[in-house]
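User: For my dataset I need records formatted as: sequence, then structure tokens, nothing else. Please produce one.
Assistant:
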Amino acid sequence: MTAFSDLQTAAVLFSLMIAPLAAAGLALINAGLGRSRNAAHAMMTSLTAIAVASCAYFVLGHSFYGAAGEPARVAMIRRQTWDWLGAMPPFFIGLPAAGSPAFLTALMGTESVALAALIPLGSGAERWRLSSICASTAVLAGITFPVFAHWSWAGGWLAKLGFVDTGGAASIHAVGGLTGLAVVWLLGPRRGKYSSDGMPMAMPGHSVVFVLFGCMLALAGWIGLNAAGAILFAGVPLGQLALVGVNTLLGAASAALVAAVVTKVRFGRPDASLTANGWVGGLVAVSAGCAFLPPAAAVLTGLLAGGLVTFSVELLELRLEVDDPAGSISAHAVAAIWGLIATGILGRFPAGNDVMLAQVVGVATLLGFVLPVAWGLNALLDRFLPMRVSREGERQGMDLFELGAGAYPDFVTHTDDFMPR
């Protein structure tokens, strides 16, 4: 990678300093959309997932991820060279000095995989055991994320096709969201979620304040992550970072407004949780092409993302019986797929770049490779380390059952005498 100027290095470092706010925002959203008896467990698993993901990426993941211009494993297919896996030593051995582009990329990868690890937690909330979460996170950070991220970010075969994923819509959010879908398939719905005739029962989250505050934190972190990705992976000049910030904000704002309007029209009142899902979906969708979309295109991307996420949540829950308490699959995987396609349609690229074809190939790779691999690896883990908590643990609440204390010990937080035993 070409050496950065001191100003570029400072810009990336500052962006990555605020990027963890996205993880804090997602943790609060996951906790707020769950019931009060699981709130401490939601925050504990978020902290633990960040820790496990960071360590697993340091030990193994980064060696598979590599970096553009660094050693890689290649295969010759029909006289074409396909760069499919990084070949760097583990433990960040051999990285150039701190502040170099390769080292900054390693930091970006560590923060990105930590954020990706939080996404499945929202899908598997209220019935996923902490020990199994740690094992699943290690697999995500050590295998699934770095392999796909190498293809899309680190000069792999997708990047060479022209695939655009500036802020990680595919590498972070689609990988995390599809892993969440695999986890939900393996866990099954929460007890009491569906009646005998398959109708979903309302299980509202306990703190809308957590959820909406989490959205605000996420915006700041997303701007940082998108700005760092724009410099590291898209090579944009520093003057173009203002466009990245504007597009990120406009994507979230337009998506949230659409979600609020849609729920107001359909239910008589705007729904706060679905509006929050729309906000996150807008952030995700615009991340792919944040450095290449005109502001009007970012607004259009967000508008469609907000509507898509709102209807996707209903479709998954009502029609497909996919119990996703935080709406993570819709807000991350579905919105990411739309954002990748929107980048190919609406992005401004040099003439001759067939970005649309590369985006379609990237989406097909996510659905045809990442989703089956995520399901297979987690199914294998489930055989040795069961994922789902016991019936009694779910009835009692994850806080008391796994942590021994509730988040709100001075209050009566739940009664579930009606829950089937």
